[in-house]
Amino acid sequence: MLGLVVVEEAPLLAGRDEMKLVVTLTVLLSVLLHGVTAAPLSAAYARRVEAMAADVPEKREAVEAPSGMGPAVAADHQRVTPKHSQDHPR
């Protein structure tokens, strides 16, 4: 994605059109391949873990890591709709 930003911001860059095409195709293929392979590879991994011994790390209970944001900080980061946007619909 950064490649597309660079190409768009540098109109005089030599080979700009080719770079834009390569970056675009790379991103699109990456999204497509990740989408197509996610379910089958996840299922294969699940089968592999099921076949492992009961005491392997993969079968241990996961512990949720703290986010570093306490309740007060998290509340400050919630999205709030301004009151005026409700008074004046678009």
Topology:
Blueprint (H helix, E strand, L loop, with lengths): L1 H8 L6 H35 L20 H6 L6 H5 L3
Helix pairs in contact: 1-2
Describe the structure.
The protein is mostly helical and 90 residues long. It has a domain at 1-61. Helix content is 60%, strand content 0%. Helix 1 (2-9) runs antiparallel to helix 2 (16-50). The two termini are 32 Å apart.
Separation of the first and last Cα atoms: 32 Å
Q: Quickly give the structural class.
A: mainly alpha
Overall pLDDT level: 79
Q: What's the overall geometry?
A: elongated
As a percent range, the share of helical residues equals 55-70%
Oligomer: single chain
Number of DSSP helical runs = 4
Report the radius of gyration as a whole number of Å. Answer: 23 Å
Pick out its properties.
elongated, single chain, 60% helix, 4 helices, 90 residues, mainly alpha
Quick structural gist:
The protein is mainly α and 90 residues long. It has helices spanning 2-9, 16-50, 71-76, 83-87. The longest helix has 35 residues, at 16-50.
